[in-house]
Amino acid sequence: MGQLAGELSLARRAVAGMAVPDDTIWLDANENPAGPPPSAISAIVNGAAATARYHFEEFAAFSEALAESEGLTPQQVLFGIGSGDVINAAICAFTSSSRPLITGAPTYEIPVEFARKLGSNAVQIRLADDWQFPVKELADEAAKAGGRANLFV
């Protein structure tokens, strides 16, 4: 739990001792300044009674509907319960012993550890002093590793 707590408090540690406005949006807490749209509020209210369980039996239909709306096949749709499943699938698909995980540091430690346990190298590029991701350095590392530097930029 200590590791997770470190991830969750990164932004707050970065501003420790600083005067932070009351209306600060904490993205690390998944806050959204706009709030949910009315359609989402309606779906929440109408579906609240069914939220006590995961609806695994609906996953196939959900994949089909999402694929159709985006012009994809259901095999091209991947979702998970939380982000962990999707992040792990991406690490499995896009890293190997010759294709490293390239990320900023500090960042979420769990994907870095997962990649290393799979035998992939993890290249971590230090965040800038203002906590921004050094995009050019990340892209340069991707190019050095044989990847396309414009893939995620």
What this model shows, in words?
With about 150 residues, the protein is mainly alpha-helical. The relative contact order is 0.09. The protein has a two-stranded parallel sheet. The chain has helices at about 1-10, 10-15, 40-45, 60-70, 85-95, 110-115, 135-145; strands at about 100-105, 120-125.
At a glance:
By secondary structure, the chain is mostly helical. 42% of the residues lie in helices and 7% in strands. The protein has helices spanning 2-8, 10-14, 38-47, 59-70, 84-94, 109-117, 135-144, and strands at residues 101-105, 122-126.
- The largest sheet has its strands arranged as 1-2
Q: How many distinct beta strands?
A: 2
Number of helices, counting only DSSP H or I runs of 4 residues or more: 7
Helix content: 40-55%
What is the H-and-E element order? Answer: HHHHHEHEH
Class inferred from helices and paired strands: mainly alpha
Give the amount of beta strand, in percent. Answer: 5-15%
Query: C-alpha Rg, in Å?
Result: 19 Å
The largest pleated sheet is described as: 2 strands, parallel
Mean pLDDT: 83
Q: How would the global form be characterised?
A: extended
The low-confidence parts are 1-8, 149-153
Distance between the termini: 32 Å
